[in-house]
Write a structure and sequence with these properties.
Blueprint (H helix, E strand, L loop, with lengths): L1 H43 L2 H18 L7 H24 L1 H4 L17 H22 L2 H21 L6 H9 L2 H10 L4 H24 L1 H7 L4 H4 L4 H23 L5 H24 L2 H24 L3
Helix pairs in contact: 2-3, 2-8, 3-5, 3-6, 3-8, 5-6, 6-7, 6-8, 7-9, 8-9, 9-12, 9-14, 12-13, 13-14
């Protein structure tokens, strides 16, 4: 009897050991799934796009700052802006999840791919946006918080739905896209001034060739998703080309305003002219050729132009 009892106990220990081994073997899988989930939620915030938001907000802050006493607030400004922008990005993808699923460029995103549930994304986006607005109110100032709330609301509730109804969506979307430097400026000064609007104008007019280049590159994708981007409606890209040149030409005098307002010196003035002419030349080439390769060159030129322009402005700050 004792022999059978010992054998039974041995079998139990062997089975326990087996279950333990299985649990240990499954642990890396659970860990990998957890990491994947965190990655999906991180991806929903569009970190690459929002890096530009923080960069331009920081430019506005730097151009407004007049001494080291202003700098501790920068961290609060960037954190609150990052939360607000992340919330807007998540809510944008929540609204567009069905349409994103129709486009090869976005079908693999967490929502259309089914890796994140719509309700999860909705709650996540609302939490991030609300947290950012409250954070800016408490630790920066009300006007910066109001600008953040305006940016989120116009991006999610105006620009996002209009993308399916009118080609004017790009112009409308450029407005919230140009607000971050205003937020950086008001974080320091507590008011909107001509200098702040000069930064807004540069970013607004820069966005148009930038996003029209993207719309040309993904013309078929946008058509499949049902988005009324200008190149989707303008099959021959004639109107698209004219707008690229028009906004590129307008950007040059607008980019000179900081010198006229005493924000930057002659070095910036000359650099803005040279950079603007170079950007315009690439845009004109794209407008004439209507070729995807030239649209890609315009896109690359746009992401070179803006950081260089702002860098020179910051170096030559008055």
């Amino acid at each position: 009897m004792n022999t059978f009892t010992n054998i039974a106990k041995l079998d139990e220990r062997v089975m326990d050991f087996g279950h333990g081994s299985l649990a240990v073997a499954n642990a890396p899988r659970r860990s990998a799934r957890a990491i994947s989930r965190w990655t999906d939620f991180y991806e929903l915030t569009k970190p690459r796009m929002n890096f530009l938001v923080l960069l331009t907000a920081m430019v506005g802050y730097y151009m407004a700052a007049r001494g080291w006493a202003d700098w501790p607030r920068l961290i609060h400004t960037l954190l609150g802006t990052a939360l607000t922008a992340a919330g807007a990005s998540v809510l944008n993808q929540y609204v567009e999840r069905e349409y994103d699923g129709r486009m090869s460029r976005t079908a693999g995103r967490p929502l259309p791919a089914g890796r994140v549930a719509p309700l999860e994304a909705l709650c996540y986006g609302v939490f991030l946006g609300a947290a950012g607005i409250v954070y800016l109110t408490l630790l920066v100032n009300p006007i910066t918080s109001a600008l953040g709330a305006l940016t989120l609301a116009s991006y999610v509730f105006v620009y996002t739905p209009l993308k399916r109804y009118t080609t004017l969506c790009t112009i409308i979307g450029a407005v919230p896209g140009a607000v971050p430097p205003l937020m950086g400026w008001t974080a320091v000064t507590g008011q909107l001034s001509p200098e702040a609007w000069a930064l807004f104008g540069i970013l607004f007019f820069w966005q148009m060739p930038h996003f029209l280049a993207i719309a040309i590159l993904y013309q078929n994708d946008y058509a499949a998703g049902g988005f009324k981007m200008l190149p989707v409606v303008d099959d021959q890209l004639s109107s698209t080309g004219r707008q690229i040149v028009l906004y590129g030409m307008t950007l040059i005098p607008v980019s000179l305003i900081p010198t006229l307002l005493g924000m930057a010196g002659l070095g910036y003035f000359l650099a803005a002219i040279l950079l603007g002419l170079g950007f315009l030349a690439v845009g004109a080439l794209c407008a004439v050729s209507k070729d995807r390769l030239d649209a890609r060159r315009l896109f690359v030129a746009s992401i070179i132009y803006l950081p260089l322009l702002f860098a020179v402005m910051m170096i030559d700050k008055r």
